[in-house]
Amino acid sequence: MNEVMEKEVVSIENMIYKIDGVEVMLDSDLAILYNVETKRINEAVYRNKDKFPVRISWLTSKDEVSNLWSQNATANISHKSRANPRVFTEQGVYMLATILKSKVATEVSIRIMDTFVKMRHYINLNGNLLPNRVLLLEEKVDSNTKRIDELFDRFNPNDITRNCVFFEGEFYDAYSKLLKIFNQSFKEIIIIDNYAGKELLDIVKDIERKFIIVSKNISEMLKEKYEKQYHNVIFINNDSFHDRFIILDRYVLYLCGSSFKDLGKKCLGISEFDDKEYLQRIIKTIGIK
């Protein structure tokens, strides 16, 4: 058996942990394998929330982190200072490979497939060297490879476009994009729009998220009527902003070139910002904790 191959298989084996009987991998360990920053892994999940239901990927609780520590005291748990790492089940790892579409992501998908091949080759040559868990993987390799191919076939890169322009009359496309952005969030959506009104409230009333709407002009009567029937919006009066922004879970920032009531009426652009310093400064300007 090739010594380098053996070490690589064992290394991957040591990155697999169990939470409530479910085998998972940490975001930071996947980042090492993918040769990307951990935050890129999490950003990919945030941009594609609908592709990662909690059964295949979730943020660990304090109890889960504590259990990981206690059960794997000598294991290589990367970035132990992070309180709540995200974990991925086997299916979650495959889904991640389908959305990291870049030069690095292409290499990632190849390395994932290579790992399966190396595992198969390793098991065929020396099936008794690794624990039973690796032997069990042998039975899954062929079916898992097929599942990865199917996920790539279904993947539509247009679903995760981060920057786009809509022209006059493209009402449906503009609103569809807005809803896709909203659906990327897990818990909270902050909307900054000085002309927020009934059009925006008609959209958010049916979305099961906590909304914070920051505006200087929204009608007090409209707010009062909305709050009597719905309870998912906090209104903040703030006159510090000119442009329109969307903030997802205080983690992802979008800039919108038009008031949300005017989507589709004139040419407008929607862009995502990667700079977390801008994001934190905007949150601080809003005055929320």
Kindly summarize this structure in a few lines.
The chain has 289 residues and is α+β, with helices and mostly antiparallel strands. It contains eleven helices and eleven strands. It is elongated.
Protein model, in words:
With 289 residues, this protein is an alpha+beta fold. The protein folds into 2 domains: 3-153, no CATH class; 161-286, Endonuclease, Chain A (2-Layer Sandwich). The chain contains 11 helices and 11 strands. It has helices at residues 3-13, 27-34, 38-47, 62-71, 90-99, 103-125, 132-154, 171-183, 198-204, 220-229, 276-286; strands spanning 16-19, 22-26, 57-59, 86-88, 163-166, 188-192, 210-215, 233-237, 244-248, 252-256, 268-273. Strands 5-11-10-9-6-7-8 form a 7-stranded mixed β-sheet, with helices on both faces. Strands 1-2-4-3 form a 4-stranded antiparallel β-sheet. α1 packs across α6 (103-125), α2 (27-34) packs across α3 and α5 packs parallel to α7. The longest helix has 23 residues, at 103-125.
